[in-house]
Amino acid sequence: MLSLSNKRILLGITGGIAAYKCAELTRLFIKAGAEVRVVMTQSATEFITPLTLQALSGNRVHLDLLDPEAEAAMGHIELARWADLVLVAPATANSIARIAHGEADDILTTLVLATPAAIAIAPAMNQGMWSDAQTQANITALAARGYTLIGPGSGEQACGDVGLGRLSEPEEIVTACAALFDTGALAGRHVVITGGPTREALDPVRYISNHSSGKMAYALAAEAAAAGARVTLISGPVTLATPERVTRVDVISAQDMLAATLEVVGNSDVFIGVAAVADYRPAQIAEQKIKKAGEAITLSLVKNPDIIAEVASLTQRPTLVVGFAAETENVVANGQGKLAAKKLDLLFANQATDTFNSDSVAITAVDAAGVTELAAGNKHLVARKMLHLIAERLTR
Ligand code: C5P
After folding, report:
1. What's the CATH code of the domain at 309?
2. What stretches of 187-294 adopt beta strand conformation (E)?
3. Peptide bond preceding 90 in cis form (omega within 30 of 0)
4. 22 is catalytic
5. Tens place of pLDDT for every residue, the chain, 396 residues?
6. Is the pTM of this model over 0.85?
7. Substitution site in 261, 301, 308 for ligand 1 pocket (most atoms within 8 Å of beta carbon)
8. How far is the CA of 279 from the centre of ligand 1 (A)?
9. CB contact at 8 A, 19 and 44
10. Which one of 30, 109, 321, 363 is separated from 15 by 20 to 30 angstroms, measured CA to CA?
C-alpha cells in the first residue's frame, strides 16, 4: 500500500519552471497521509506563489532565514528536526551545486545542513546543464553522502530541448519518497482508541469515577502511530501528555465518549476500547451542590451506554473491534463471555488489580480461535505485541 501515513515532509522548492508541479506534489503527499511544510528560495517564488503552497499544505511557508515571525512560530533548527524527510524539488543545477558545497546562506541550504532527516533531491534543469561534468560531479558527491536521487526524467523540456532533465512526475516522486520509509504494520490504517476513566457528575463539584490512569491506551496510541497508523485517541480525564502524531479528543462522561466515538469511528480500520467507562451514572445531576443530610443518602444510578458494543453493532463497523477486560477473577472465562456478548473480534484480558496506574501489565489475548498469553512487561512493549496481533488479523 502506498502510504506516507504520519510522515513529516519538508519540501524545499528552488527556482525552476517545474516548481509549478509542487502544487500537485503537495496535494498528493497530503493525500498519502503525510504532513507537509514548505520552504522556498527567493527565485522559486517567481514560479509559484507561497500562498498556493500555504493553502495546499495547510502550513505557513518559510521563505527567509531571518524572518522573526516565522522563527517565532517554528525556528529553522526546529523545522530541521521536525522533518522525517527533506525533499528538494525541483532542485536546480545551482541549488544542487550549493548543497554539494555545503553552503548555508538561505533557509533551504541551512535546513539541508542542519537536518538529521533523510534527504532526497529531484533535479530539474536543461539537459545540457544536467549532463555537464560539474553537475554530475555534484550529484555523485551528494549520492556518496547518502542523498536519494529521484529522476530526472527524460523528454521534451520547457526550453524546447529534448533529453534528461525533466522533473519526475509528482506521482513518481511520492512513490519514491514512500519507498524510503519502512511504513510499518499499520501504515495507512485509521485506529480509534478510547482511554482513561469517565467521570459521571453528581452535582457541580462531585462525580463518580475509577482509578484508570490511561497509560495502556496512551501506550497503544503511541505505538500505533509509530507503526504508521492515523490514530484518534478519545480520552477521559487523565494527566498524560498526548503522544506525538496522535489526534486527541478530550471527553468527560461516558455519554460524551460515545458521541465523540461515533463521530470518528465510521470506516475506521480498528477500534480499541481501552477506556474504563463508568457502567452507571447518576440518574440526575443536581444543579446545586448536594447538601449534607442525615446519616445516609441514597443515590439513584442509571446504566451508561456500552460504547464498544454500540461500535461493534454499527453497519459501518470498523474491520476489527478490540476490547479490554479488566477482571478480578476468572480472567479468561469472563473474557470469552465478553467477546461473544459484545460481538468483539479480539479481547485483551488482564488482572484488574495489577494494572491501574502501573507501568507494566500481563495480558491474555482471547478470540474465537483461542487464547494467547502475551509475556508480561512494560505497557509500551505489551502494546507493540497487541498491535502485532491486530495487524495480523487485518491482513488475513
Ligand atoms: O463489560 P466491561 O466493562 O468489563 O467491558 C470492558 C470493555 O468494554 C472495554 O473494552 C471497555 O472499554 C468497553 N466498555 C465500553 N463502554 C462501557 C463499558 C465498557 O466501551 N459502558
Report:
1. 3.40.50.10300
2. 190-195, 200-203, 206-208, 230-235, 246-250, 270-273, 280-282
3. yes
4. no
5. 457 888 999 999 999 999 999 999 999 999 999 999 999 999 999 999 999 999 999 999 999 988 888 788 788 999 999 999 999 999 999 999 999 999 999 999 999 999 999 999 999 999 999 999 999 999 999 998 899 999 999 988 888 888 899 999 999 999 999 988 877 899 889 999 999 999 999 999 999 999 999 999 999 999 999 898 999 999 999 999 999 899 999 999 999 999 999 999 998 999 999 999 999 999 999 999 999 989 999 999 999 999 999 999 999 999 999 999 987 788 888 888 999 999 999 999 987 665 566 777 889 999 988 899 887 888 888 999 999 999 999 987
6. no
7. 308
8. 8
9. yes
10. 30
C-alpha grid cell, residue 233: 485517541
Residues in contact with ligand 1 (CB, 6 Å cut-off): 194, 254, 273-275, 277, 279, 304, 306-308, 323-325, 338
In a domain, 140, yes or no: yes
Q: Provide the grid cell at 389.
A: 496481533
Atom 2 (ligand 1) nearest CA = 325
Q: How many angstroms is it from 277 CA to the middle of ligand 1?
A: 6
User: Which of 233, 234, 324 is the best mutation target for the ligand 1 pocket, counting ligand atoms within 8 Å of the beta carbon and taking the most?
Assistant: 324
Q: Looking at the domain assignment, is residue 102 inside a domain? A: yes
Domain that holds residue 173: 8-181
Same domain for 131 and 249?
no
Total count of domains within the chain: 2
Please check whether residues 369 and 307 belong to one and the same domain. yes
Claim to verify: residue 208 and residue 177 sit in the same structural domain: no
Spell out the residues 6+ positions from residue 368 whose beta carbon is closer than 8 angstroms to its own: 339
